[in-house]
Design goal:
Helix content is 45%, strand content 10%. The protein is mostly helical. It has one domain (7-99). Strands 1-2 form a two-stranded antiparallel sheet. Strand 1 (7-12) and strand 2 form a beta hairpin. The radius of gyration is 16 Å and the shape is globular.
Length: 123
């Protein structure tokens, strides 16, 4: 993992690729999963399934490559086949890198205080 927040380098698909958990990643991830940004928490609520893991890797690789103008020489299905060579530890490291990323400039909780208290009317 690189020291920069939201980046992870991994040898996958025959070469070292950079995964970037950027605004572009979250947009691509929402598109790939068919969800809105507000529903991201629902995707992870019951743990990770294979579709989600594949989407995380694909969208992170795709985001970096598109941001850098690199050739896109893969599909989501090709990335899925590359995952057969990835260890559980590497998946965990990628999930940690994703968790350290930001959405809309805020931490994963989108800057909303947990257990926030609401103001009562008239105060």
């Amino acid at each position: 993992m690189t020291k920069q927040r939201g980046y992870y380098k991994l040898k996958i698909g025959g070469k070292v690729r950079t995964l970037h958990f950027s605004m572009n990643f979250w947009s691509a991830f929402c598109d790939e999963m068919g969800i809105k940004l507000e529903n991201i928490g629902d995707v992870f609520a019951d743990g990770l399934d294979l579709k989600t893991i594949r989407a995380i890797f694909y969208c992170a690789i795709l985001s970096f490559d598109q941001e850098e103008g690199n050739e896109i020489d893969y599909t989501v299905f090709k990335v899925g086949s590359w995952l057969e060579d990835i260890t559980a530890e590497q998946i965990q490291e990628v999930i940690i890198a994703m968790g350290e990323s930001k959405i809309l400039g805020n931490e994963m909780n989108m800057g909303i205080e947990r257990n926030a208290k609401t103001a009562k009317a008239g105060k």
